[in-house]
Amino acid sequence: MHGLSFRKPNESEDFERIAKVVNESWAADGIDAVRTADELEKNFANPIDFNPKEDCLIVQAGTEIIGFSEVTSQEKLDGEFRYWHYPHLLPGFRFGNLRRTMITWNEERIRTIAAARTNARRQFIEVYANTKERNDWKELIVETGYVPTWYLFEMVRSNLEKIPDYPFPDGVETRPVRNEDLRKIWNAAKDALKDQRDSTKEKWNDEGFEKSTSSPGHDPRLWQIAWHGDQVVGGVLNYIDTDENESLGRKWGHTEEIFVVRPWRKKGVARALIARSLRVIRDHGMEKATLDVDTENPSGALGLYKALGYEVERQFTFYHKELR
Fold this sequence. Notes:
It contains ten helices and 13 strands. By secondary structure, it is of the alpha+beta class.
């Protein structure tokens, strides 16, 4: 391709153009996510699971940024390492072998990182794709040797009227979240969600806590936390992504990070918390509520979400290669 070049990001100069590439690439791949320049800037300034100077690559055609590759590294709580990558590429440049070349660069970078972790229990390269969308990305994943391992549903409750009211068990209540409650809630969620596929040391360590509580979507006023005395019983850490809503032209709220501590499971706590969360999302002007769920969630959450009016909007397939 004429005028094609590869380079590392020049952070302050590139964030707006990188965000544009990422968002257009995701849209072409059937992924309704949005990344902003501000988010990129914060991630580069305080990286948790990647090295901005080594793990990112920009692809240019002349002076135009047309692609952006990124690699992240996460350690599972059981000592297993996962390496995620995504070769973002504008739809108009998806011909020839350019995206395959980007995959090769990502994998070589991952193998370099993985080679230094001689004591790792197991190590995997992971990617994901919209299951139902016909797109070149999903086809390329399979062609380059990735195999499907698990599936995730994006679920949406399209109507936020007539939300039922479910009672808590005796002695359980909700109350406004105070700043001094944040760490206790965080610790309860970490323990309750430790068996989930996305539970990693990077997500739940001190740096992860600081990143979460300083993110643009962090608004504990939206949270619903169940207490029994001074003990956290469960919670839903709801959030509204204003940038995402504006970019996609919608009014959705996220009823995410749903957890119940083990002694209180199967007692109706999650049902009551989610119903309250839906009303909070509605009362903040949202028209729909969404959440993601592993189709093999060990707590059987899928049935509960369907009973509460959520329906499957999209399905994603996660693929991996094991590093030997």
